[in-house]
């Protein structure tokens, strides 16, 4: 299976030219990968010269387009399954909403919506915020699972006690 990668395009300067060896060192790839990219459509400055040079803006354009093609738009009730490499839904009974208590912006909290893939049973995670959740598909259908047992002596157990979302 091919390993798909994202590259740090901030390392590439738009107005600088790069040889195959310089570019392979910069992006930490094999020089043969650069040659394959050329055959896939990355255009060198002079196609018939002995030493191929690529302009930075051309490299950035090519890799950005390559990464955009891999992106997949998720529907409202879908997760991206890392094992299946495609959008999948989760059984409604297997979905949990976890409030992380990490702030997003001034007055919003981060949440994780977790589920289990119907096909491969892999854990699925989708990130959102508490204000987006209120009016979303998940806010209307799901229950929250982040309650902590409290008491004396302080309990070390965490559980997934389900309760209705009240907001």
Explain the overall architecture.
This protein is of the alpha+beta class. The chain folds into 2 domains: 12-70, Winged helix-like DNA-binding domain superfamily/Winged helix DNA-binding domain (Arc Repressor Mutant, subunit A), CATH 1.10.10.10; 74-167, no CATH class. Helices cover 26% and strands 22% of the residues. It is built from 5 helices and 7 strands. β6 (108-116) and β7 (123-129) form a beta hairpin. The protein is elongated. Residues 143-152 and 163-167 have low confidence and may be disordered.
Radius of gyration: 23 Å
- Determine the strand fraction and express it as a percent band: 15-25%
Structural class, by secondary structure, is alpha+beta
Q: How large is the count of helical segments?
A: 5
Domain count: 2
Order of helices and strands: EHHEHEEEEEHH
Q: Approximately how much helix is present in the residues?
A: 25-40%
Largest sheet: 3 strands, antiparallel
Oligomer: single chain
Strand order in the sheet with the most strands: 5-6-7
In angstroms, what separates the terminal alpha carbons? 46 Å
Low-confidence stretches: 143-152, 163-167
Mean pLDDT: 78
Shape summary: elongated
Let me know the number of strands.
7
Give me the secondary-structure topology.
Blueprint lengths: L16 E3 H8 L3 H10 L12 E3 H15 L8 E3 L4 E3 L7 E9 L3 E9 L6 E7 H5 L2 H5 L26
Antiparallel strand pairs: 1-2, 3-4, 5-6, 6-7
């Amino acid at each position: 299976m091919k390993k798909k990668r994202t590259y740090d395009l901030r390392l590439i300067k738009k107005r600088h030219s790069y040889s195959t060896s310089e570019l392979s060192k910069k992006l930490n790839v094999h020089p043969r990968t650069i040659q394959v990219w050329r055959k896939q459509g990355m255009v060198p400055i002079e196609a018939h010269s002995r030493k191929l040079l690529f302009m930075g803006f051309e490299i950035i354009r090519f890799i950005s387009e390559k990464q955009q093609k891999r992106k997949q738009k998720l529907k409202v009730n879908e997760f991206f399954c890392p094992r299946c490499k495609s959008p999948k839904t989760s059984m409604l009974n297997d979905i949990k909403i976890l409030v992380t208590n990490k702030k997003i912006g001034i007055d919003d909290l981060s949440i994780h919506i977790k589920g289990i893939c119907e096909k491969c049973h892999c854990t699925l995670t989708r990130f959102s915020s508490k204000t987006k959740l209120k009016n979303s598909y998940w806010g209307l259908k799901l229950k929250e699972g982040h309650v902590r047992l409290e008491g004396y002596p302080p309990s070390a157990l965490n559980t997934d006690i389900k309760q209705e979302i009240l907001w």
